[in-house]
Amino acid sequence: MGINDLAKKLDLFYQIGKERKECNALIQCFGIKYADIIMSAGIKPEEIVEKSSLKGTTYATELRKGMKLSKYVYLKEEFKL
Predict the structure, then answer these.
(1) Cβ contacts of residue 19 below 8 Å, gap of 6+?
(2) Boundaries of each HTH-like domain copy (predicted)?
């Protein structure tokens, strides 16, 4: 999965978060789910955010938080998008 695919998935998670009024939490969920792919590809969270529709935002911080949490938590089945 490349950076453009990750950016599209980030947009999807953001839209779900926007509908639920939980954008930060859903960005963290994205980080949890895709942490291994992001780290193994050597992609920086800022790069994914810039390629997404969230350009210029501080969501890279939330993405990084989710990546750190990925060692300790699993997502519920409903977020296996």
Answers:
(1) none
(2) 3-76
Sign of CA dihedral 71, 73, 79, 80: positive
What pLDDT digit, counting tens, does each position of 6-62 carry? 999 999 999 999 999 999 999 999 999 999 999 999 999 999 999 999 987 889 999
CA neighbor of 31 nearest in space, from 53, 50, 46: 46
Identify the pLDDT of residue 55.
80
Distances in whole angstroms, Cα of residue 44 to Cα of each of 2, 32, 47: 12, 14, 5
Give the residue from 54, 51, 23 showing the smallest Cα distance to 38: 51
CB distance 64 to 31 below 8 Å:
yes
